[in-house]
Amino acid sequence: MMTRQIRVHPCSSVANNRTPMSRHTLALAALALCACTTSSRPAAGGGGTSATATAASVRREPFGRLPDGRAVELYTLTNAHGVEVRAMTYGAIITVLRTPDRAGRLDDVVLGFDSLGGYLRGSPYFGAVVGRYANRIAGGRFTLDGATYTLARNNGPNSLHGGERGFDKVLWAAEPFEGDSGVGVRLRYTSPDGEEGYPGTLAVRVTYTLTPRDELVVDYEATTDRATPVNLSQHTYFNLHGAGRGTILDHLLTLDASAFTPVDSTLIPTGEIAPVAGTPFDFRAATAIGARIDGPHQQLRVGRGYDHNWVLDRAGRGAMELAHAARVVDPASGRTIDVGTTEPGVQLYTGNFLDGTVAGKGSRVYVHRGALCLETQHYPDSPNHPNFPSTILRPGETYRSRTVFGFGVAR
Fold first, then answer.
1. Which residue in 9, 81, 161, 235 is the catalytic one?
2. What does the H/E/C string look like for 181-223?
């Protein structure tokens, strides 16, 4: 069987947040995704829960029922430092991600809801796996092997994140596991031929692993019985102050990308690969997200901020090797995220369509630009752009992709 996209690196852990290492000298066998040790000492003073040493574990519990009566389960992954990830079987959604700040206080840093009902009533993809095709396909149509396929137009004139009922709105089967590489859950879904207009029966597996090094490893795998586009991504909204605690405009962002894909008025790539140099899209050096977000650049007006795909610098990296993609630092809490991926692109979305009308966990209101997403991916609308890396999966091939979110603290 051929591998169409990614063969993940064989090491069980790809980040080490205890060993300083420049992002320009990353070792592939141990991608240094974080520069400082997360404190496990109790915090002095009030506010938050202190990170304390504990045994790694995975716990399963009910999380409500869908309108048709099917049960939804919630899996809680915890490592020895108290870092916690919760994921449910509806939409493969990450509902909670708790990490410590520089004082050791744990807080939930992802947007979402306290109960299943919030996600069912309407969620802007909080924490979900999006597919069969993450991001947009122009006009809701593409041509493959001489046949034209029509998709739901659920984002203006375009198809977004798999259509009206993408992978974020289906029930996945799940199996927990524990091992030397960490604790986790494997989620499976089979998308039937013709679902949301896509050809082929697609068997998908997504694995979440919380490692002893405070990494969340997201592995994707898929096979098909007919040629079809596949582009899977994770759509978690991060705010390193804590979910619902203000905006992310002061977060410092670094993107390892010298180019991006400009978009038209409907956020579809024009086909150009444009250099970031001299533009507000240049995050090759750490820059506050809010420093240029409201500037006069035409692309910022189109996106109402950042809602674009960056072309990652992968020189010297094989197509199946991890490369560092992004780093986010919250100067206030000290929390950091480093992202490594096998994907060629990453979509930065700065919560431009959050407007204060959504009340999430603890009834906190999610304000405009109250979170950011780093969606590792192939480029938007790739089936309609022959010059973009291909997203077509064929029978006999296996789609594989890996993204690693490494959590730490900048002192």
1. 235
2. CEEEEEEEEEECCCHHHCCCCEEEEEEEEECCCCEEEEEEEEE
Q: Return d(Cα 159, Cα 189) in angstroms, integer.
A: 21
Known active-site residue 235: yes
Three-state SS letters, 273-296: CEECCCCCCCCCCCEEHHHCCCCC
- 236 in Cβ contact with 92 (< 8 Å): no
Q: How confident is the model at residue 52, as a pLDDT?
A: 65
CATH of domain 2-43+51-409: 2.70.98.10
- How far apart are alpha carbons 211 and 29 in whole angstroms? 15
User: Could you tell me how far CA 307 lies from the centroid of its own chain?
Assistant: 14
- In the set 221, 343, 375, 397, the catalytic residue is 375
Q: Please check the confidence at residue 22 and state whether its pLDDT lies above 90.
A: no
- The domain segmentation of the chain, as residue ranges, is 2-43+51-409
Q: Please say if 375 is a catalytic residue.
A: yes
The model carries a pTM of 0.89
Residue 45 reports pLDDT greater than 90: no
68: Cβ contacts below 8 Å, ≥ 6 apart: none
Task: Record the tokens describing residue 72, joined without a space.
Answer: 């939804």
